[in-house]
UniProtKB/TrEMBL annotation:
EC number: 3.4.23.12
Pfam family, any one: TAXi_N
Protein name in the entry: nepenthesin
Position of the signal peptide: 1-29
Length: 447
């Protein structure tokens, strides 16, 4: 269901999340000050995205497996951070961010513009790229940014609001930052401002935005930055691109991870337009809206209120508080571009697994070859194969997913697998479940 494609002739789905607190002051007292730079009055631009395995010969299942492997520490680290923030050790754990994303943004930095691919991550805030001179840098496909060759580069002082918003910084010839991710990758360098250019093509398709705060990384370690030259955080904190642009709306459409089309990220005024779905006169746009929740322990994350799950015609008897946010900040469910599959709290996943096993009516595959919790042996004749529908009952919104967003088949292995897993504590709505729908995030609850 290529709902992002202008050539699609099927129903289009727009999933709208109301960020009720996006521009409200989070726990950091400097958050509003960090948004005080002058920006274009009605900024709007489109950024090309591509999956990090785009153009490879991997099957869809292999791409999912690689994504799970890349992010194996992400969920564990997310839970550890939230629990630590509620137990008095927030100052230590706050230095660790969720980890690296699965989609890359087409961005350029500096004057003249220096193009590079950056990881898109809705689960973290800092924008950064590798900079010369590099004490420790990983390989990247584009030239490393040289601040001395840009006429618009400027370092930030330690008293600047963005420096004060960092989880960890020191003052030595400017604001020195240290940012560590969930897979123990890290970036370290100086916080600065620079002109960023977004959009593809030339002329009116490109938008240049001055004075964006970013990390100029001179010591960058780890193997979690596959094919990217840095990262663009789209979280709710003051350091993120969303907050710095002072544009409370963005949307994205992630095409199938095994497809050939690039995905899109829309910012500002473009994110408001329903026309961005490129629907034809034969298509119907179905809009589903649900408000976002706020977790004071982790104010940067986008939390959804999940009230239940249905498999086929059966609404599972999941306890009412299974996905609730707890007083200590644990629990809840976030939507995240950087996690491949959806992870559900263990008791809920067990019920989903049990119901799929019953309704699929296929022999189980217990070889473990896929690395997923539930797989079935693929029948020789798949023409009459029926997959139970899967519905997530969010607050005020029921989201029925296309079957390709949760069942993945591999003819070489002869298996069909449920692209979901279990967790303890926090749950995550992953990018496989988000593919081929327009996800709009806005402070507005209606459009």
């Amino acid at each position: 269901m290529a709902l992002c494609s202008s050539h699609s002739s099927i129903k289009a789905l727009l999933f709208v999340f109301g960020i009720l607190c996006l521009l409200a002051k989070p726990t950091l007292s400097t958050s509003r000050k960090a948004l005080d730079h002058a920006k274009p009055a009605r900024l709007g631009f489109r950024v090309a995205l591509r999956h990090i395995d785009h153009g490879s010969n991997f099957t869809k299942l292999e791409r999912v497996q690689r994504g799970i492997k890349r992010g194996r520490n992400r969920l564990q680290r997310l839970n550890a951070m939230v629990l630590a923030s509620g137990s008095g050790s927030y100052e230590v754990e706050s230095k660790v961010q969720p980890g690296n994303g699965e989609f890359l943004m087409d961005v350029a930095i500096g004057t003249p513009p220096n193009p590079f691919w950056a990881i898109m991550d809705t689960g973290s805030d800092l924008i950064w790229t590798q900079c010369k001179p590099c004490e420790q840098c990983f390989d990247q496909s584009t030239p490393i940014f040289d601040p001395q060759e840009s006429s618009t580069f400027s370092t930030l002082s330690c008293s600047s609001p963005l420096c004060e918003a960092l989880p960890s910084s020191t003052c030595e010839e400017g604001c020195q930052y240290m940012y560590t991710y969930g897979d123990y990758s890290s970036t370290q360098g100086i916080l600065a401002t620079e002109t960023f250019t977004f959009g593809s093509g030339s002329g009116s398709n490109k938008v240049s935005v001055p004075s964006i705060g970013f990390g100029c990384g001179e010591d960058n370690e780890g193997n979690g930055f596959d094919q990217g030259a840095g990262l663009v955080g789209l979280g709710r904190g003051p350091l993120s691109l969303v907050s710095q642009l002072d544009e409370p709306k963005f949307s994205y459409c992630l095409t199938s991870i095994d497809g050939t089309k690039t995905s899109s990220l829309l910012m500002g005024s473009l994110a408001e337009a329903n026309s961005s779905l490129s629907t034809s006169e034969n298509e119907a746009t179905k809009i589903i809206t649900t408000p976002l929740a706020q977790n004071p322990s982790r104010p940067s994350f986008y939390y959804l209120t999940l009230e239940g799950i249905s498999v086929g015609s059966t609404q599972l008897p999941i306890k009412e508080d299974t996905f609730s946010l707890n007083e200590d900040g644990s629990g809840g469910l976030i939507i995240d571009s950087g996690t491949t599959i959806t992870y559900l709290e263990q008791s809920a996943f067990d019920q989903v697994k049990k119901e799929f096993t019953s309704q699929m009516n296929l022999p189980l595959d217990d070889s473990g070859s896929a690395g997923l919790d539930l797989c079935f042996k693929m029948p020789k004749d798949t023409s009459n194969l029926q997959v139970p529908k899967l519905v997530f009952h969010f607050k005020e919104a029921d989201l029925e997913l296309p079957s390709e967003n949760y069942i993945i088949g591999d003819t070489n292995l002869g298996i069909l697998c449920l692209a979901m897993g279990s967790s303890k504590g926090m749950s995550i709505f992953g990018n496989v479940q988000q593919q081929n729908m327009m996800v709009k995030i806005s402070k507005l609850t209606e459009i």
